[in-house]
Amino acid sequence: MAILKCQSRSFCSKILKLHMARFTSWGGKEREDLKEEYFKRKTEIEDKSTKATEIQPEAIFSNNELNLGDIDVYGFDYDYTLAAYNTELHDAIYRLGQQTLMDKYKYPEDILKLKYNPDWAIRGLHYDVRKGLLMKLDSFHNIQLGTVYRGLKSVSDREVKSLYNGTHVSLDNMNTFYGQGPMHQLVDLFALPEVALISNITEYLLLNNINYDPEYVFYDVRNAIQAIHSSGILHQKIMENLDRFLQKCDKTKFLLERLRLSGKKLFLITNSGYAFVDAGLKYMIGEDWGDMFDVIIVNARKPKFFNETSRPFRQFDVASNKQSWASVQSLQKGHIYQQGNFSRLKEMTGWYGSKVLYFGDHVYSDLADPSLKHGWRTAAIIPELMGEIEKLNQPDYQYQVKWLVTLQNLIEDSQHQISPGSKALIQEWLAERDEIRDFTKAKFNPRFGSLFRTYHNPTYFSRRLGRFADLYMSSLVNLLHYSVDHTFYPRRSLLPHEPNPF
């Protein structure tokens, strides 16, 4: 023990001397020395940035090690997983929502003039229903300043800090997965027209000096959007215009066939009704789409499907378009089932745990409970990933990010300078850092930036994605680029205290 203590003291003494030498060195530098160091580091970055690193947009990315050879059963959601939609669908949802607000909730007819902007927002934003503010949160519940909007107008950093006593949102105020607070996350792709409608109506009310409660506006819009889903209006519109709204991809059928030929079991669990799913899959795969799946479950009412144990399965008779009253004791290929629950699925099929891989687009209703409670392996379909990677691959973006990291390290190393000239120079660097941050943010969206990252940290959405999904990808058919026994390995991320091995 005495030797260990001596070695420990000796090691600490060496580290302390190194730090003292470092700070003494920096402390003696004047403004010109700092400028010289600035240009030296910038030149190094420019020399290293002649060739951009390319990320494959059709790759699959791993949060957790997963060997496909261990997977016996593949499960799928329908909307935005098996079915991929064109952007025209969001415009249709927006306009149907407008009409519902006017007809059912008696909103002014003028709201029909408010146009949908598909580039207005991104998925994963939070809306404070009490303050009427739309914003982006990072993985630590911090508000990213510069991303807070009331209607279509940006809210100043000073006002944001005043309203929230800083920039942190407490867990009690969250309304996603945990808590019942006023901060709602708009997490699925169908939420994009909902966000646009909330923002446009709020802006209309503000411009026309109409007194309003933001909580009323939020729930009116939410209920209107939910109504066009639950009433079947939206599904009917899609079924009448499949070629307009639905992307037809021959690769989907090829993927399912490849999995079946490899001896895998396939199942479908969707919240959508049979008629809607049947029309879509006939269009995408063919009349025999049902032969692809060993079990088909519609109207599943996820996430309740994964939590409740009391709701039995009911068989749906396609010919009569009616559900049966007979008790379901087994799940048979070629039959359609409604509702049900995870426990009965497990009992009737024997499918459980890490032998099952389930694909979905909604990180909460599709992936959270299967992953956390039931031990399924999970994969998220994130269509926006394709566009984000295209931006990440641009040489000017990669250069600016490298320089941003280098500049920030230089600022940190130089922050103990005491001369007025040195302090003024560091302030200039901080201003430059802010300009680069704005540039990299605007690459993805000028108001809200990337779906996955704030300035420093992953977004709240990204954190949940990392927690609930073993894999994520832009499209289900990306799986075709890998063999059925491929092993996905997560990238080893350095912790702040760990040395860089390269």
Brief write-up:
The protein is of the alpha/beta class.
Any overview of this molecule?
Helices cover 44% and strands 12% of the residues. By secondary structure, it is an alpha/beta fold.
* Regions with little confidence, pLDDT below 50 for 5+ residues: 1-28
If strands are numbered along the chain, what order do they take across the biggest sheet?
Answer: 1-16-15-14-3-9-10-13-11-12
Radius of gyration: 27 Å
Q: Number of helix segments?
A: 17
Task: Name the helicity range.
Answer: 40-55%
Query: What fraction of residues sit in β-strands?
Result: 5-15%
Molecular shape: globular
**Total number of beta strands:** 17
How far from one another are the termini? 34 Å
**Largest sheet data:** 10 strands, mixed
> Quick check: average pLDDT?
91
Topology of helices and strands:
Layout: H1 2-27, H2 31-48, E1 60-62, E2 66-67, E3 73-76, H3 88-105, E4 125-128, E5 133-135, E6 149-150, E7 153-154, H4 157-164, E8 183-186, H5 191-207, H6 214-230, H7 233-240, H8 242-245, H9 250-261, E9 265-269, H10 274-284, E10 295-298, H11 304-307, E11 313-317, E12 322-323, E13 336-339, H12 342-349, E14 356-360, H13 363-372, E15 377-381, H14 384-392, H15 395-414, H16 420-442, H17 460-468, E16 471-473, E17 487-488
Parallel strand pairs: 3-9, 3-14, 9-10, 10-13, 14-15, 15-16
Antiparallel strand pairs: 1-16, 2-17, 4-5, 4-8, 6-7, 11-12, 11-13
Helix pairs in contact: 2-15, 3-5, 3-6, 5-6, 13-17, 15-16
